[in-house]
Amino acid sequence: MTDHPGHQDTPDAVPAGAPAHRSDAAETRAFHELLRGLRVWDVDLPAFDPAAAPDDPLPLFRQWLREAAEAGVPEPHTMTLATADAAGDPSVRTLMLHDADERGWHFASHRGSRKGRELAVRPRAALGFYWAAVGRQVRVHGSVTVAGPEESAADLHRRATGALAAALVGRQSEVLGSTAELARASEAAWERARREPEAPVPSWTLYVLRAEEVEFFQGDAQRRHVRLNYRYEGDGWAKELLWP
Prior knowledge:
Elements: H1 24-37, H2 57-70, E1 78-84, E2 90-96, E3 99-101, E4 104-110, H3 114-121, E5 124-131, E6 136-146, H4 149-157, H5 161-169, H6 179-195, E7 204-218, E8 226-232, E9 237-242
Helix pairs in contact: 5-6
């Protein structure tokens, strides 16, 4: 974006020694200009032929995640998880995919966290993956089941020491009094995680989302996006194209 002399904003008067700041109108205008100036898919995007897609969405999902990793997408296993409470009010957050197999898409958290409480009363969820470098996204939604304590513990103890330390801190989604309180709890948790790599965390729970729909979206620079949707119909998957 090019500056145009003679059309500069005049800053609001501020007391001597106070930091200069933009007016609300100027800040809003600058933010809108920033949004309009951001580029979308200014790289070569892969082609996707939905006619060649497998009958089951799992192999295609694994292929796309692998290709995203190979394209240099950072943390391609991160995903958005959407849940809702008993009243239907939604909440969303980003977390890691732990596995994707014939049972479904796996993720984990504390039972007492917000997501854990919401899944307890409304065991349905949606996942979203977005890999900007290849212009692809995958949407998954369906019912969620809880794995048993042994499988949940095994999931945790397969992960890095830092994951165990974070789980040992616990109290996820509770109000935190201060960052110093967190620092003390985290330091103690790290010490225990190193000392006891199999330390139990009873609240840690593995969840499995059994997909009922899985949509694959391949972006196109000309906006002729390809959307392939899989729907589970009880005895197998049906495939359909969606208008972009």
